[in-house]
Write a structure and sequence with these properties.
- The protein has 215 residues and is an alpha+beta fold.
- The protein folds into two domains: 4-26 and 195-214; 29-192, Jelly Rolls.
- Helix content is 20%, strand content 35%.
- The chain has two helices and eleven strands; from the N terminus they run αβββββββββββα.
- The protein has helices at residues 4-25, 195-214, and strands spanning 27-31, 52-58, 61-66, 83-85, 97-104, 114-122, 125-129, 132-137, 149-153, 161-168, 181-193.
- A hairpin with a 2-residue loop joins β7 and β8.
- α1 runs antiparallel to α2 (195-214).
Length: 215
């Protein structure tokens, strides 16, 4: 026959299991706040024409915001992103050009991270996440600069600092193939434990320690 002590221990184990289950379930999709679209400031607002985008570099140098992309036949800027180029007048030379940015997943679970976005480039574009090719698209024959193409990234993230590199050639037809630039509209999420779930985990570990001492 089960003793009162055994019943108490059984109920305690059940309670601890529920605590752990609640802690594991109590997570939410948090915004990756250090991930920025092109041509915006720290608050996500579009920068002025000619302003330097502090979140991106091009071949290690400055990236300049293009406020009037229609003047070179590019699709328009959006409310949350703008075109950038290696020079303010878009005539950047033959390339290729690598646009570089970083974002931080500290405190977030990289296995649950996801980035969605829209991209336009003159001429082509390939996206690398932490050095791995995660998107090939925008063939130059389709005039990629005249439209925004959707994409998503759901793997290849790491804890801490992550890098995004976008390669844009500009020597498809001639050694100096006119304007060159990039527009990327980005958003990202990753799961993070709620403060309450961290408390529940602490309670669970404390209860387990107490039961071991009692045993």
């Amino acid at each position: 026959m089960q003793s009162v002590k055994d019943r108490v221990r059984f109920l305690a184990v059940v309670a601890i299991a529920l605590i752990f289950f609640g802690a594991v379930q109590s997570v939410h999709a948090a915004t990756i706040t250090t991930l920025y679209s092109t041509g915006v400031d720290a608050s996500g607002n579009p920068l002025a024409d000619g302003a330097i985008d502090s979140h991106y570099t091009v071949n290690g140098g400055s990236a300049y915001t293009i406020g009037n992309p229609g003047s070179v036949g590019w699709v328009g800027n959006t409310a949350t992103s703008s075109w950038i180029s290696n020079v303010p007048n878009t005539d950047g030379g033959s390339g290729p050009f690598t646009y570089h940015t970083t974002f931080d997943l500290t405190g977030l679970n990289p296995n649950t991270a996801q980035i969605t976005g829209q991209l336009s480039a003159d001429d082509q574009a390939t996206i690398y996440l932490n050095g791995v090719d995660v998107f090939d698209g925008l063939p130059t024959g389709s005039s990629p600069w005249s439209q925004l193409e959707s994409f998503s990234i759901s793997s290849g993230f790491v804890a801490g600092t992550n890098t995004l590199d976008i390669d844009v050639p500009n020597n498809i037809q001639t050694p100096d193939d006119g304007p060159t630039g990039l527009q990327v509209n980005l958003s990202g999420t990753a799961s993070a434990p709620e403060p309450a779930s961290l408390f529940l985990l602490g309670v669970g570990f404390g209860a387990l320690s107490f039961l071991r001492r009692r045993a």
